[in-house]
């Protein structure tokens, strides 16, 4: 298997799909909302056994790079490594979206919550110094519907389904593998598609592209700084103009990857 025969086709496909909100909706006049974003991320994958890991994650997402809230994400899950190349995962996420931008999705002026469950499968491939991971994730989402008379009260929960495909890569710069005290290049592209009932205008939900440099402090600690582009289509049309709204958010993502080993020592 070579990169040109498999991985390259995935890269081309994701690049084409990622242009959908820019080119695929050209016949409908859109409202574009540009925001400068800063995402500060903690990822923890902690070994429980040889095959099982506990996943902990928090994302502090900000507008104007750091000045005000965009979103808050807290996730807890488990992963099972069924082979050297295949990993299965599941988990729960508590998500909050705040009012931001020119066309805020939290249109009643207060943040709204979301509960998620997810199941995913990841396939890893290696091409010399380049490691690629393909991940397909299914999400079940419960989005808070706020009461008109008291927007701080949740009147009901709307259920939605979403599928995500991500291709992520890591390129060693100093040798065949990334070792302690070395830099590496990392990148990912992820496409989000809504399906089933209650999906509004945003069947195409969003796309994220990110690339940057990472530094491996040791086997259990990496720090990454990436440029980040996020294109989001809102579920609802703009109430004033009746036009679809697309966010085009650009900024950076600062990530700390941390791993602890809870396995019993022999």
Give a short synopsis of this structure.
The chain is mostly beta strands and 266 residues long.
How would you portray this structure in words?
The structure is a single chain. The protein is mainly β and 266 residues long. The protein is built from two helices and eleven strands. The chain has helices at residues 3-18, 20-24; strands at 31-47, 52-63, 68-81, 86-97, 112-127, 130-146, 154-172, 182-195, 204-218, 221-233, 245-258. The chain has an eleven-stranded mixed beta barrel with strand order 1-2-3-4-5-6-7-8-9-10-11. A hairpin with a 4-residue loop joins strand 2 (52-63) and strand 3. The longest helix is centred in the first third of the chain and has 16 residues, at 3-18. It is globular. The model is unreliable at 1-5 and 21-27 (pLDDT under 50).
What topology emerges from the helices and strands here?
Blueprint lengths: L2 H16 L1 H5 L6 E17 L4 E12 L4 E14 L4 E12 L14 E16 L2 E17 L7 E19 L9 E14 L8 E15 L2 E13 L11 E14 L8
